[in-house]
Amino acid sequence: FCRRLAADAGRLAHSAFGSAALLPAKGRHDEVTAMDREVERFVREAITRAFPGDAVLGEEDGASADVASAEFLWIIDPIDGTANYARGIAHYCVSIGVLHNQVPAIGVLHDPSHDRLYWAARGQGAWLDENGATRRLAVSPIASLDGATVECGWSLRRPQADYIALFDRMLGAGCAVRRAGSGALGLADVAAGRTEAYAELHINSWDCAAGLLLVAEAGGRINDFFAGGGLLQGNPIVATNAALAEPLAALAGIPLLSTPQEMKR
Ligand code: LIP
Questions:
Q1: Is the shortest distance between the CB of 195 and ligand 1 below 6 Å?
Q2: Is 135 helix (H, G, I), strand (E, B) or coil?
Q3: Does the CB atom of residue 36 touch ligand 1 within 6 A?
Q4: Alpha-carbon span 250 to 246, nearest angstrom
Q5: Element housing 106 (H / E)
Q6: How many angstroms does the Cα of residue 110 sit away from the middle of ligand 1?
Q7: Is the four-CA dihedral 49, 53, 57, 60 of positive or negative sign?
Q8: What's the pLDDT tens digit per position in 27-48?
Q9: How does DSSP assign 107-120, residue by residue?
Q10: Of 150, 141, 176, 143, the residue nearest 239 (C-alpha)
Q11: Atom 16, ligand 1: which residue's CA is nearest?
Q12: 101-138, pLDDT tens digit by residue?
């Protein structure tokens, strides 16, 4: 269900790529388009029809009343990378995560620009459907900081100096640093072994609920994102490969879980 829904939602988003109406921004560099809202409505309606007793939290339309108590909670980012989408930069995705009793259980991302469907279920690995084939995802084996590429997310949600210091620590350790504007796809790149880590000083749960599970199920390490109110207020995030987990988490200044199974809301 999740895989079909994410792919259908991705195709809906892509149908207006390059022409979606820009709505009044939520803040400086925090864009939203009419298609963000349309995709979230589409996803919410499908979930409510299929699973009427479940709770839903979405970036655009917020949380249902039972978000803190429901056995199953769906967390939706209808278009992650909205600033890219609004500018015609083909680097965005639909992200759908499902928590079961407060623990990430399912994560699905659809990247319409490449028709890539990333998916994971807890304890069942992380996978990528692309070009008609399905392959298992595994994090990068790179074990040297001066061979590592790290994506560092950025926003105005934390002081600029703190972001500059983060970039400086990573660059000073010899890492290559990138920022591509979609935290969800940044996490998918870690799960797929394309980069060695994704770190950001503040990210929202809808950006990362699916991607955190992808990284954990691909053999990577993650932080305890949902602890201390992360679900509704957001939190720092670090997600890494296995070989460089400790030094990269130390450079990010964000402690890792010893095992993903410890993750809780
Ligand atoms: C984006 C995140 C990214 C962050 C951006 C923005 P959106 O989400 O994926 O990690 O750095 O500021 O929040 O707003 O495109 O859904």
A1: no
A2: strand
A3: no
A4: 6
A5: strand 103-111
A6: 16
A7: positive
A8: 888 888 999 999 999 999 999 9
A9: EEEEETTTTEEEEE
A10: 150
A11: 80
A12: 989 999 999 999 999 999 999 999 999 999 999 999 99
